[in-house]
Amino acid sequence: MHTSSLSRFLFIILLLLPLMGFAQEASSASSENTPESTQTDSTSSNTPSTTENSEPFDSVAFRKSILSFQAGVFREDVVRQIKEHILPVQVGEYALQSIMGKSLLGVNQGQVTFIAPAQGNSRLFTLYQRLARIFNEHGFTTSVVLVPLGLTMPQALTDAAKEWETPLAAIHQAKNSDAPIKLIVSQGQIAATLLTLYKEGKVQAPNALIMHDVFFSAYEDNQTIPDLIRQQPMPILDFTSHSDSVWSKQTKRARQFAGKIRQNGTYRQRRILGQNMSPKQAHYIHKEIRGWIRSLGWI
Questions:
Q1: How many other β-carbons are positioned within 10 Å of the β-carbon of residue 256?
Q2: How far apart are the first and last CA of the chain?
Q3: Which of 217, 171, 218 is CA-nearest to residue 194?
Q4: Where is the signal peptide (predicted)?
Q5: Strand 182-187 relative to strand 140-147: parallel, antiparallel, unpaired?
Q6: Where are the alpha helices (DSSP H) in 175-281?
Q7: Bridge partner list, 269
Q8: What are the CB-based long-range contacts (under 8 Å, 24+) for 18-26?
Q9: What are phi and psi of 74, to 5 degrees?
Q10: pLDDT, tens digit, for every residue of 233-256?
Q11: How far is Cα 235 from Cα 292, in angstroms, rounded to an integer?
């Protein structure tokens, strides 16, 4: 039964094929003989092509111009916002630039001051800016202060203390007096100089010092840093990482030993795991600092 049905279906298809071909030929012949069609073809052939005479649309150049415009607007907006939040720290006849941040919780748990060199090291500046914003979100006021270090570095730690005493003392005096605790965060040779100034009593010591990659680029002075740590009255959090300078790595174990024999026992050395001390680690570093502050019973 299925075979007979299929045979009938094929027979019908064979009968319809000639009719379908005839209809197609008639349709094409009609379109060729229509005057309107002929006029349209003639007109279109005589009309110059817009695509051939005009320049092609360059989508890549267009996107670049849009991105350039957006980048310019973004840059101007960032500069404007930074200018609105930069406050001067007066040092004698000149002022240091300080980016201030307020607590976003309506309470002030403390003041965190980040001290960075004004020359170079944009990664450090970016790290401090991100850390400052995170501390603001957790109820701290902050300031990121840029210190001009001069064209040449001092050859000795005592020379650095004399040369940088005035701006560093001004930064400490400008700290928010209403804050219940005052923290200083610094790195490298500035941190080493602060240890010297605190020991000598030339700069008022904060409630706590947070430092990373601390060193001084002179062998004998660099070897004195562990002893400076031992003589400090305030708690110290000492961050280390695999990207620390050779100078800092030379005293890492000695610093840790000096911290252990301190009478108050408030020195802690913490290694940054994974990446180095970079802006990507801001949340991790903030967590370490807050955990340490909490262990001191301050928050």
A1: 16
A2: 92
A3: 171
A4: 1-23
A5: unpaired
A6: 188-200, 219-222, 225-230, 246-250, 252-260
A7: 238
A8: none
A9: -60, -45
A10: 899 999 999 889 999 999 999 999
A11: 10
**Spatial contact of 103 and 136, defined as CB atoms under 8 Å apart:** yes
> What CA–CA distances, in Å, run from 186 to 4, 16, 87, 127, 239?
96, 92, 19, 11, 10
CA distance 282 to 286: 6
Task: Convert the pLDDT of each residue in 1-57 to its tens digit.
Answer: 444 544 555 455 544 544 444 444 444 444 444 444 444 444 444 444 444 455 565
CA distances from 250 to 8, 115, 124, 240 (A): 98, 23, 22, 12
Asked whether the CA dihedral 126, 127, 132, 135 is positive or negative, the reply is positive
CA–CA separation, 244 and 225 (whole Å): 15
- Residue 196 to residues 22, 31, 119, 148, 152, Cα–Cα distance (Å): 105, 99, 22, 19, 20
81-295: CATH, from 2.40.50.200, 3.40.50.2000, 3.40.50.1820, 3.90.220.20: 3.40.50.1820
* Alpha-carbon span 189 to 14, nearest angstrom: 97
Q: What is the three-class DSSP state of 161? A: helix
- Beta-bridged to residue 97, according to DSSP, are 88
Give dist(CA 281, CA 126) in Å, integer: 11
Domain ranges of the chain: 81-295
**Tokens at 186, concatenated:** 């610094």
